[in-house]
Design goal:
The protein is mainly α and about 475 residues long. Helices cover about 85% and strands about 0% of the residues. The protein has 2 domains: about 190 residues, no CATH class; about 240 residues, no CATH class.
Length: about 475
């Protein structure tokens, strides 16, 4: 197995471990925290992440881009990361001081209900330390130190899980339980990374390097800001138009549905670099079906993961979550459509970057924001969290289609649409069945038998289309 495949497998393992811990934590959260308390914490995370992102001024992108210029010189590499970290750390300290002095006034402006007095400050500490940790984690990732990267990320997830569980079960702290867990786990991560790497990365500041990074990062700041805002806009509007309780329920459903995208991201660390290799090798010109043949198994596996999430979301929610969170089932089912569509987004993004049309991705992002806002406001007003889920899904699917059409104009990839339609068609059948099942009084054994029939049909389609087989799996692993 090649080093890149091995590292990608390790990253997928880390995503799996972190995802499982979060899924295990969700039933505990639903038992000890009401949706209102969870919603407060989620909104605090969103707002602090936005201002922390602004305080970074896109410096992470500038650092990652210039990392490869100085990677062969340990001294220069150390100056590069230190220059970025010291600048961002200064900005975040100023930000923390301002929030400490005016947290009551700020909280009253952005929250519609009263929140714990220190919630915003503690969550901001967590967001700040997490932000600074990203520079050291990027260093590990770009240095091909996948095992170290994964070790730190898994330990971070375990600390968050244990502290959150301990505080929720032994202390009546409400949303502050998650805030303290978030701040403590990310602070431990930052301190551990700093002291482990300080010998090889001594602290220093280089104004020339800093200016070089700033030239790259400043133009990206609006894109980073609006991109994050777009992904969180449904929850922000729910908090403004509805309540933090709605945000709490919606967040639980989104967390489960998000496992689809996280799984896809792990696979993406395998297929995205290969897309670039094939594009630069003109594989899409020499053999029109080359890229499609390569991507089809990844698409099939991604949809299979989504199929399982959709088909068994009702059982999981009803068994493990309290009554206050039962509406999360429908959110999971609806948002799964959105996250499945994002597979094509990973491919179209590579097409546009290869074609040196990155400015188009910015224009598409702003179009997506406009559609997202335009749909979310009336949908939330009329249908609450279900409306938010449908608005996010519809806008996401529209932008996937638009992105595909635009990307195909510059770099044409011939897809095997007969197989894709069969795979996606079965998935949509599973979605429709799950919605009907959720809203009906279908007997449990009939529901379960029907679901297993759909899964069996999906497997059969994969074999009939020669997408999966023992031979295909072995070929995939041997790349």
């Amino acid at each position: 197995m090649s080093k890149s495949i091995k590292n990608s497998s390790l990253y997928l393992f880390q995503i799996g471990v972190s995802g499982v811990l979060m899924l295990v934590l969700m039933p505990i959260i639903s038992k000890y925290l009401l949706p209102n308390a969870l919603g407060m914490f989620v909104l605090a995370q969103i707002y602090t992440s936005i201002i922390v992102g602004i305080a970074n001024l896109g410096m992470l992108a500038g650092y990652e881009r210039n990392f490869f210029i100085f990677e062969k010189s340990s001294g220069e590499s150390a100056k590069l990361i230190s220059s970025a970290v010291l600048f961002v750390a200064f900005n975040l300290l100023v930000l923390l001081a301002l929030v400490y002095l005016f947290q009551l006034e700020i909280s009253s402006l952005i929250f519609t209900s009263e929140i714990p007095s220190n919630l915003l400050l503690v969550v901001l500490i967590g967001a700040s330390t997490s932000s600074l940790s990203q520079y050291y984690l990027t260093f590990l990732k770009n240095s091909s130190m996948a095992q170290s990267y994964i070790k730190y990320m898994i330990v971070n997830s375990i600390i968050y899980f244990m502290v959150a569980m301990l505080l929720m079960t032994s202390a009546d702290l409400g949303s502050m339980s998650l805030a303290y867990a978030w701040a403590s786990s990310n602070t431990v991560l930052l301190v551990s990374l700093f002291f482990t790497l300080k010998k090889g990365l001594p602290v220093g500041f280089d104004m020339r390097m800093f200016k070089q990074m700033l030239k790259i990062s400043l133009p990206l700041t609006p894109r980073v800001f609006f991109g994050f805002l777009n992904t969180q806009f449904d929850k922000i509007l729910l908090g403004m138009i509805g309540s933090s309780s709605l945000v709490g329920v919606y967040h639980v459903g989104q967390t489960f549905a998000l496992t689809i995208f996280q799984f896809m991201t792990g696979l993406g660390r395998v297929f995205q670099p290969e897309i670039y290799r094939k594009l630069f090798a003109k594989a899409h010109i020499n053999d029109a079906n080359e890229i499609s043949r390569y991507l089809l198994p990844f698409f099939y596996i991604s949809i299979f993961m989504a199929l399982l999430v959709v088909m068994f979301s009702r059982e999981f929610v009803s068994i493990f979550l309290s009554n206050e969170y039962q509406d999360a089932t429908l959110i999971i089912i609806i948002l799964s459509i959105y996250y499945v569509s994002m597979f094509f987004g990973k491919v179209t993004g590579a097409q546009l970057i290869y074609a040196k049309k990155t400015h188009i991705t910015t224009l598409l992002m702003f179009l997506g924001i406009a559609i997202n806002i335009g749909l979310n406001i009336p949908f939330i007003i009329n249908w609450g969290i279900v409306g938010a889920a449908w608005a996010t899904t519809i806008s996401g699917v529209i932008m996937t289609i638009v992105g595909y059409v635009v990307a195909q104009r510059y770099v044409k990839i011939t897809w095997k649409w007969s197989s894709i339609v069969a795979i996606y068609g079965l998935f949509l059948m599973a979605v429709i069945f799950s919605i009907v099942d959720y809203n009906s009084t279908m007997q449990l054994y009939i529901s379960l038998i029907s679901k297993f029939i759909v899964i069996l049909a999906y497997v059969i389609v994969g074999y009939m289309a020669d997408i999966i087989s023992i031979r295909k799996i072995m070929e995939l692993l041997s790349r």
